[in-house]
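Hey, quick one: can you model this chain's 3D structure?
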Amino acid sequence: MNKQANPPANNQASPTMNTKANAQASSQATPHSYLCGLIGAGIGGSLTPAMHEEEGSKLGLHYVYRRIDLEALQLDVAALPELLSAAERMGFNGLNITYPCKQAVIPLLDELSDDARALGAVNTVLFKDGKRIGHNTDWSGFARAFQRGLPDVSLERVVQLGAGGAGAAVAHAALTMGAKSLTLFDVDATRAAALADELQKRFPGSQVRAGDSLADSLAAANGLIHCTPTGMAKLPGMPLPAELLHRDLWVADIVYFPIRTALLQAAEALGCRTLSGGGMAVYQAVDAMRIFTGLEPDAERVYIHFQSLLQRP
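Sure thing. Here's the predicted structure for all 313 residues.
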């Protein structure tokens, strides 16, 4: 993988954007100061910056975390090379990556962690020693949240909606936790089939397949995992017909803004056990902070702070 270098937009760049070497020397001279950020589309409501900055302060760090919102900047995924180069030049220590960039960022990186390579998706990029190193904390974040919120449910037959970057990570987590049968659905049936094939090779002891009939698969399922953007504040609604839900399902959503999505509300009305996306948001942030700083955040403290953020008007 070769990162794509991009020159500054003009010859009048500020001194902070002169060279990558100068930026790295600056950040190395102040080891307790961190500049991080989040790249994604429609992330104005993300609570990730507040979680990072609060926990950074508790750890005694000067920690600044900025949103880089493609939607607000009127940019798309094609701007990723320019944005990564700019972040390096400005001395960023790392970036979190969210929808729709988790897979598109990979060709722009120098190295991948084993997890990121296996998943084919990156949500955390560390800038270190002149290299861009991709990690994935989505899968570990989901697994920790699931074990906290739904520790005793059956993973015998699980249906998952979404086979994109986040979906790949969450499916990996479900199989790692012991899912015996995992059926994948996506608006792009080819993508669901490709992910199923990859996962089947990595988890030969489980049955992984792309589904044909969502109604039939859900009728026989113990649990449903939702990994698409539907239900977010900017994309309200249900990712499936509500009548396909039944009370014997547990339902886990990775969307956390709003914390109680239309899907979770419909499931709760039927008496289903549910898991919001809040826990995944917390634990993936904790794992990303560890990568950025080399320090161990207090996960319970971050979780409590996240809950307080949800109460704010």
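One thing worth noting: Confidence is low (pLDDT under 50) at residues 4-29.
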